[in-house]
């Protein structure tokens, strides 16, 4: 791509998308490295930027892959567009005024339990159904998330 005249920053931007969309939580550091790559390419410029791009490309190419986060947001957005909308539960609302606090819109201890940093509760998509949007894969770091 570089030999063909492609802008190094365009390549770096595509690496950021690859890191998030195709690698995701299977290797969360991929997004950090891709963002750092874009910043370094922007600061350094060519011809040295080719080395930075090469390092990131090899890291991304050899990282475990998962698009579970991408699939989760697509499912959630589809539900927002196609399912009835429900009010945010009172215990999750912000209560910046005294009246709102009195009306029960202040966060309470009536929240789903948290185990290992993961909230066990889910918001209903309908009155009788609950949905799970994020389904970790068996790849990389997500394998541990799925197990926990």
Q: What would your notes on this structure say?
A:
By secondary structure, this protein is mostly helical. The chain has two domains: 55 residues; 80 residues, post-AAA+ oligomerization domain-like. The chain has six helices and four strands; from the N terminus they run αααααββββα. The strands form two sheets. The chain has a two-stranded antiparallel ribbon. A two-stranded antiparallel ribbon has the order 3-4. A hairpin with a 2-residue loop joins strand 1 and strand 2. It is elongated. The mean pLDDT is 83.
Write the layout of secondary structure elements.
Elements: H1 8-23, H2 29-44, H3 49-62, H4 68-82, H5 98-102, E1 114-115, E2 118-119, E3 124-126, E4 129-130, H6 140-147
Antiparallel strand pairs: 1-2, 3-4
Relevant terms:
elongated; about 50% helix; about 150 residues; two-stranded antiparallel ribbon; 6 helices; post-AAA+ oligomerization domain-like; mainly alpha; 2 domains
What's the CATH architecture name of the largest domain? Answer: Orthogonal Bundle
Order of helices and strands: HHHHHEEEEH
Rounded to the nearest angstrom, the radius of gyration is 21 Å
**Helical coverage, percent range:** 40-55%
Task: Tell me the fraction of residues in β-strands, as a range.
Answer: 5-15%
CATH class of the largest domain: Mainly Alpha
Q: Which fold does the CATH topology of the largest domain refer to?
A: post-AAA+ oligomerization domain-like
- Annotation, overall tally of beta strands: 4
Structural class: mainly alpha
Distance between the termini: 41 Å
- Strand adjacency order, main sheet: 1-2
The major β-sheet equals: 2 strands, antiparallel
Number of domains: 2
Low-confidence stretches: none
Helical segment tally? 6
Coarse morphology: elongated
Mean pLDDT: 83
């Amino acid at each position: 791509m570089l030999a063909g005249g492609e802008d190094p920053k365009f390549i770096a931007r595509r690496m950021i998308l690859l890191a998030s969309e195709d690698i995701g939580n299977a290797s969360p550091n991929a997004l950090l490295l891709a963002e750092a790559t874009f910043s370094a390419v922007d600061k350094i410029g060519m011809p040295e930027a080719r080395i930075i791009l090469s390092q990131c490309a090899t890291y991304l190419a050899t990282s475990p892959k998962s698009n579970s986060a991408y699939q989760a947001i697509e499912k959630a957005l589809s539900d927002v567009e196609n399912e009835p909308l429900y009010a945010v539960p009172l215990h999750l609302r912000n209560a910046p005024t005294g009246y709102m606090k009195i009306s029960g819109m202040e966060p309470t201890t009536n929240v789903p339990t948290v185990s290992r940093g993961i909230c066990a509760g889910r918001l209903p998509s309908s009155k009788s159904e609950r949905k799970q949007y994020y389904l970790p894969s068996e790849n990389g770091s997500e394998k541990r998330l799925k197990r926990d």
